[in-house]
Specification:
alpha+beta; Aminopeptidase; 7-stranded mixed sheet; 16 strands
């Protein structure tokens, strides 16, 4: 009934066939970013009979003592009605086949465990992706996999469980009226005080050093972890005009902010960004987000994703979450993450370290 086949040809791998809102972490180029860091990536297609119903890519991360883990970020991306629920094949059948395939791959790669978080197409474009539980997914997932403990979500490797998204398929005046009054005030203030926003569509690498300097400053100020510098540099070298742009905020000749906006499917993503602690009273960050929303609208995108925010067990983003949520929108909750444990001893050690020495 179900068949999971490895794909090595870029033309065959396209999660956007499942949904225009498929996460960018399942895009081919995202896998290329990981490969540029020396990580192995394998990609797969899911079929029910002769129909394609899903895709996923697996990233292999190295761990100390010559160990490794596998991660499938916000995937498999599935057409849930073809997998489970009314009129579809039982989800438990798919999950057993998926478990068996994942076990084989994990053993081939020598992994301690393999982690994934299902992405159910029916819950889109904006909303709660954990609604896949309405199809009995939790009961079936618990049968074959181990739910990830809350403390183990905290890692730069893994994607956030909660993101903040805004439906931007509305008139600008409606978007302005739905945000917090203080944000509207700050946007006007930034314009009146002379903050200028520039949209960069090419020569991205010219801005990289300034971007990384501001990103590092922001990470220190807001207490979050970063990937190695080489990761961001690799991202900048692969950006193209049709799938990304930079938002640069200036005050006179001084650059105060550089944000990277990624475009994939029907969503514009605030992927990475950094800002200076100087001239905070200019409120250039508020104006930068508003100009980003307007630019994404102009390009025909329906959803703006602000990225990770506080929610549930993730309560370490503080003022960053507060800033994002005041633009209006709603919480996007992904399905719980689950592990397939291969090496029990090493898995226990890994979780002990995550729990007590994050």
């Amino acid at each position: 009934m179900f068949n999971i086949r490895e794909i090595k040809n870029k033309t065959e791998y396209n999660p956007l066939l499942i949904s225009k809102q498929a996460p960018f972490t399942q895009a081919w180029f995202y896998g290329e970013w990981q490969e540029m860091m020396g990580r192995k990536v394998r990609r797969f297609e899911v079929k029910k009979d002769s129909e394609i119903i899903g895709f996923f890519q697996i990233i292999r991360y190295s761990l100390p003592f010559n160990q490794s883990l596998l991660y499938i970020p916000h995937a498999p991306v599935l057409r849930i009605r073809q997998v489970g629920g009314e009129g579809g094949a039982p989800l438990s059948i798919f999950l057993k086949i998926f478990r068996d395939k994942l076990l084989k791959i994990a053993k081939e790669e020598g992994a301690i465990f393999a982690r994934f978080d299902l992405y159910f197409h029916d819950s889109l474009p904006v909303g709660d992706l954990s609604k896949g539980d309405n199809y009995g997914s939790k009961e079936n997932l618990n049968k074959y996999f181990k739910k990830v403990p809350d403390y183990a979500y905290s890692s730069v490797y893994f994607q956030p469980k909660y993101e903040w998204v805004l439906n931007i398929d509305k008139p600008e005046n409606e978007l302005l009226s739905s945000m917090h009054p203080k944000n509207r005030y700050n946007i006007r203030l930034a314009e009146n005080k002379g903050a200028a926003i520039e949209i960069i569509e090419n020569n991205f690498e010219k801005y990289f050093e300034m971007f990384f300097s501001l990103l590092s400053e922001t990470a220190k100020r807001d207490n979050f972890n970063l990937h190695p510098k080489a990761y961001y540099q690799n991202v900048f070298t692969t950006l193209e005009k049709n799938n990304a742009f930079l938002i640069v905020a200036r005050y006179g000749e001084k650059i105060l902010l550089v944000n990277l906006i990624l475009l994939f499917g029907g969503t514009a993503y605030f992927l990475f960004g950094g800002s200076s602690g100087e001239y905070k009273n200019l409120m250039s960050s508020h104006l930068a987000q508003w100009e980003t929303i307007k630019e994404a609208k102009k390009r025909g995108f329906a959803v703006y994703n602000f990225g990770g925010v506080d929610g549930g067990e993730q309560k370490n983003l503080g003022g960053v979450s507060f800033f994002k949520k005041r633009f209006g929108g709603q919480l996007l909750e992904y399905s719980d993450s689950y592990d397939l444990v291969i090496k029990s001893f090493w898995y226990r050690l890994y979780n002990l370290r995550k729990r007590y020495w994050r």
